[in-house]
Model the fold of this input.
Amino acid sequence: MRLDIDPDELRASIAGNYEAVRFEVDAVSEHLADALGLRLPSPLVVFPVFDAIDVAETAETIVAAHRTPGIGVGDTARRIADVLAVVSHADVGLVARADTGDDVIAILAATVASLRGDDIASALAAPNVDALRKLIPEAAEAVREVLLGVEIADAVAARARLVDVGLIASGTSTT
Done:
C-alpha cells in the first residue's frame, strides 16, 4: 500500500482530523483474492497487475467483491475498454491513474464513449474535447458515477491543461 502523506505528518496536524477517503492496493493475479478479502474502514480500489490474466474477468471479479477497479491511462486501449465495459454497468465505478492532463482528457472521453456505446479505443486516441465541453448535466453526472477519480502526480499541470481546453473554469477547484 502506498501512502500519499506520512502518517506522522497527519497526526501532527493542528486540525487533528484525518480519514482515509479510499485505500488502494496493486495486486498481481496470485494475490488478487487476498486483496479483495481486505476489510478496511474506507472503500478499496484494486489496481490489478494485468499480465496474462483476462482483463474483463478480473474486473468482474473485483466488481463482484464490491470493490472498485483501478487502471492506468497508459495501459492498453483494449484493457481500458474491457474495464470500462464492466464498470459502466456496475455500481462501484473506476479510479484511473494518469500522467498528464491529456491523459485525464483521454480517460474522460473513454468513459463517455463507454456509456454511449462508442469506440473506447478511438476516444482514448483522439478525445473529442468539444463533445466533453457540451455534456449536459445528467451526462456529466453519469460520467462522475463511473469515473470516481483520476490520480495524477502533477495536479497543477493537469488542472492547467483542463483550463486550457475549456473543461473547467480557471477559478474552479478540482478537489
Summary: The chain has nine helices and five strands. The longest strand covers residues 147-152. The mean pLDDT is 88. Residues 101-116 form the longest helix (16 residues).
